[in-house]
Structure formats: structure tokens, C-alpha cells
Model the fold of this input.
Amino acid sequence: MGRKYIDCRDYPSEMHCTVALSADTEDELLEAAVQHAVQVHQHQDTPELRSQLKTLFKEGAPPA
Done:
């Protein structure tokens, strides 16, 4: 299994977040993405958020 990533730059927001996260496992990436979404974007940690975030994961590494 290769690396996966999620990049806030792909989903513009009012705060213009430029954070990109990557990990070797989907579980590790999900935990980091949930922490970021809750702490920075003020989302609630819900099953719906976790499900939505997983659909946004991409294979590889974020572009520079």
C-alpha cells in the first residue's frame, strides 16, 4: 500500500488553509485529518466527518 494524502488547498475555505497531510496508512491519515479538522476548522468529530474525510484521500504525496 502506498502513501495517501489530503490537502486543504484542494478545498478552499475562508481561512485559506494550506496544510497537507500524508501517511502510510489510511487509519493514521484519518486520525491526523480529524485532529486538524477539529482544531483548525472547528468541525465536530463525528462519524459523518470521518466518512467524508476518507472520501477525500488521494494516492501518493501532495504536490509541492
Remarks:
- Residues 4-58 form one domain.
- Helices lie at 26-39, 47-55.
- The beta strands are 4-7, 20-23, 58-59.
